[in-house]
Design goal:
alpha/beta; Rossmann fold; eight-stranded mixed sheet; 7 helices
């Protein structure tokens, strides 16, 4: 059965927006919790709630007060990475704590806020947008690697605590770099994005998960490829997106 209400945390841009648009296109009432209001084509189909996990108390209140009474689908795609890659010893303390606030704590608060509603809509689905850095780490991205690995492990742990007849938990990650506003903020104006994936590449998986509620994917981490197909990470981890130290931009 397709859920009639969905929540996407971090759904105003990027992969989260690709998921939100895919669910809204199926006629699902889709609520987006994010720092910025969704804009552009399809934004009028999304119900926006302002949320910034860097303000912990207001973020938790936004989740408490803004969640619909019934939720069958949830996607957590909120993410923070620094403006540039840099060595661990040069990492700014604020950037470090913001990565944990959004990539880890925000995920935990969202799970706590939404799991009861997902159980009530059994079977509910929780989709977490993961990253290849969980499997590859890499130089000059210590905060991102640490927080995304922690987030992935958190979801794996919760999965083992959860009855799949009530809630299915699935993780998905792109096989390559994705063209998003956050990435564009780190690139030069003349950068060529033709080899990058688009957020809409996640739409086929989002649509299938809305249809099946992840019946066959519970506990899986799925690598989404540029053609919109997906494979379990156990079939082969995605290539590392780290750059050799000598070529890493500062």
């Amino acid at each position: 059965m397709t859920a009639d209400t969905a929540v996407v945390v971090g759904g105003s841009t990027g992969i989260g927006r690709g998921v939100a648009d895919a669910w809204a296109a199926r006629g699902i009432e889709t609520h987006v919790f994010s720092r910025s209001r969704p804009a552009g084509p399809g934004a009028d189909r999304l119900v926006w709630h302002r949320l910034d996990f860097r303000d912990a108390e207001r973020a938790r209140e936004a989740l408490r007060s803004g969640l619909p009474s019934r939720v069958g689908l949830v996607c957590y795609s909120a993410v923070y990475f620094t403006a540039r890659r840099e060595p661990f010893l040069e990492t700014d303390d604020t950037d470090w704590t913001d990565q944990f606030a959004i990539n880890v704590h925000g995920l935990a608060w969202t799970l706590k806020a939404t799991l009861p509603a997902l159980r009530a809509a059994a079977p509910g689905l929780f989709l977490h947008i993961s990253s290849e850095v969980v499997y590859n780490a890499g130089p000059n991205r210590s905060g991102y690697a640490a927080t995304k690995a922690a987030a992935s492990s958190l979801v794996q742990s919760v999965t083992q605590e959860t009855d799949p007849s009530q809630v299915r938990l699935v993780q998905a990650l792109p096989a390559g770099m994705v063209d998003t506003p956050g990435i564009r903020a780190r690139r030069s104006q003349d950068f060529d994005y033709s080899g990058y994936m688009a957020p809409a590449t996640f739409a086929p998986l989002a649509a299938e998960l809305a249809r099946s509620r992840g019946a066959a994917e519970h506990g899986e981490a799925l690598v989404v490829h540029a053609d919109g197909s997906w494979t379990p990470v156990g079939d082969g981890a995605p290539a590392s997106q780290s750059r050799p130290l000598a070529n890493s931009p500062r």
